[in-house]
Design brief:
Alkaline_phosphatase_core_sf, 4-stranded antiparallel sheet, alpha+beta, 6 strands, SGSH_C
Length: 136
């Protein structure tokens, strides 16, 4: 951590300093993962236009150099071949030729999601003394 302190367990990132010193580390991640909440709390858009509840207005994405998989809470998934379709116009999620890849990326997304769930209390445990900090 920059200030010399310990990085909180809730933070899952890595330092970019190795890129400056010796280039891309050999064990650098090969996928981009992110989540997005697309509800509009003021005007109820876009949930009204696609008839979703506010709680269903979320998505998670896994993307690598070849493919992008988008999983919605309450809408069909999207799957793109980024080499053949870099502008993401052709959704392949329903194409039987891509069924195995779609399944693999859905599993990767779920595994990542489970290992990066809300970590607000990850570093704590309940004890007779109250909440105590867990050692790694």
């Amino acid at each position: 951590m920059a200030g010399g302190g310990e990085t909180p367990r809730a933070c899952d990132g890595r330092s970019l300093l190795p890129f400056l010193a010796e280039g891309k580390p050999s064990d650098w991640r090969t996928e981009l993962h992110y989540e997005f909440d697309f509800r509009d709390v003021f005007y109820d858009q876009p949930q009204n236009s696609v008839q979703l509840s506010q709680d269903d207005c979320s998505l998670c994405v896994i993307e690598d150099e070849n493919y992008k998989y988008v999983h919605f809470a309450a809408l069909p998934p999207l799957f793109f071949d980024l080499k053949a379709d870099p502008h993401e116009f052709n959704n392949l999620a329903g194409d039987p030729a891509y069924a195995a890849l779609v399944r693999d990326y859905a599993q990767k997304a779920l595994s990542w999601r489970l290992s990066h769930a809300d970590r607000t209390l990850t570093h704590y445990r309940s004890s007779p003394q109250g909440l105590t900090t867990r050692n790694h």
